[in-house]
Amino acid sequence: MSELGHIELERAVDSIWSGRRHREDYGDLAPLVESISRDGLLQPITITPDGMLICGARRLAAIRRLGWKTVNVWVRSGISTFLGQLLAEQDDNLLHKPLTRTEEAALYAELKALMVEDAAGRQEASRFTSEQENPRSHGAATVAAPQKGETRQQAALMVTGRNSYTSLERINELQQIAADLSQPDEVRERASRELERIDAGESITGAQHRIRAAQALAELDTLATDPAQPAGIRDTAAAGAARLRELEGTARPADLERLAEIAVERAKTATKKRPNQLASARLRAVEEPAREFLPVRSFVYLWDELSTWTERYDPETIGPALSNEQWVMFEHAVAATIAFLDAARAARDARRDTA
User: Fold this and answer.
1) What is the mean pLDDT of the chain?
2) Residue 34 phi/psi, 5° resolution?
3) I need a surface site. Which of 113, 153, 294, 338 has the fewest CB within 10 A?
4) pLDDT one-digit tens code per residue, 273-290
5) What InterPro entries does this protein's entry cite (predicted)?
């Protein structure tokens, strides 16, 4: 006997009941009815100890159509009280208060896990049938188990009434980070704050961008303080972390995440050179001959022309319009510009210190 459940033989069909969360539109049941009539119920439906249906609404409808009086079931224990109450609802009026988005996500994750467990049993039963075995007494009819997207969609519909599994998956990711003891404390705390913001009505996508930026920032802090790392990596990581902290309150979440990714990439590819040497090292390969640089006057003219470029283009138009190759070229240009800025600032500061 498993800690999570056990097979129960000869459960009375009339003793199995379901709440309103299970779908009532079962589609075309005829193939399923025919399959069960021919091969038996190869995968038991899943119920709680008191007979409440968890998984297998279509199978239950099919065996009722066949007039079965008893059926083998998988009695599943260990589900949360909250999910049990949700599945037991018979009427909208039974809800005392609306679920928060993070509560919905937690229930969605639990229910999806139960559905995946049920689907795995059906796949195994189908495998036995394909090998021309007929385990009539235990096990779903010979129909395909739901695909991953379908399982997520069913779980989302049962919990929220909407096909909102993408948002629920994103919240689950934040919940997992908040509970993951291997994550840095500041990242876990940030994930918890983002979940609170989501419950307050703020953007789920924005929260996801911010937590990824926070993870990158924690990685930069680790690199910056790791004595085993070369000085160039430590210095570049520290500079990148400081810059990210400056931008946290003003940059758009998506931009912050991208800048964080660039900062980590730059830190990991830095050398032992000083910061004022890093940009030129990235802009030309070591084996290339030395180039003749343009004069300062040309640089001033260039940036005088570019000083208002962000006001002349609409990012909502540019973003979708660029091809993948054009977008990569643009990102590389931005990364090289930031590297050049860091090197120029370091040289400027060094000159000021010696003046």
Assistant:
1) 78
2) -65, -40
3) 294
4) 444 554 444 443 334 445
5) Chromosome_partition/occlusion, ParB/Sulfiredoxin_sf, ParB_N
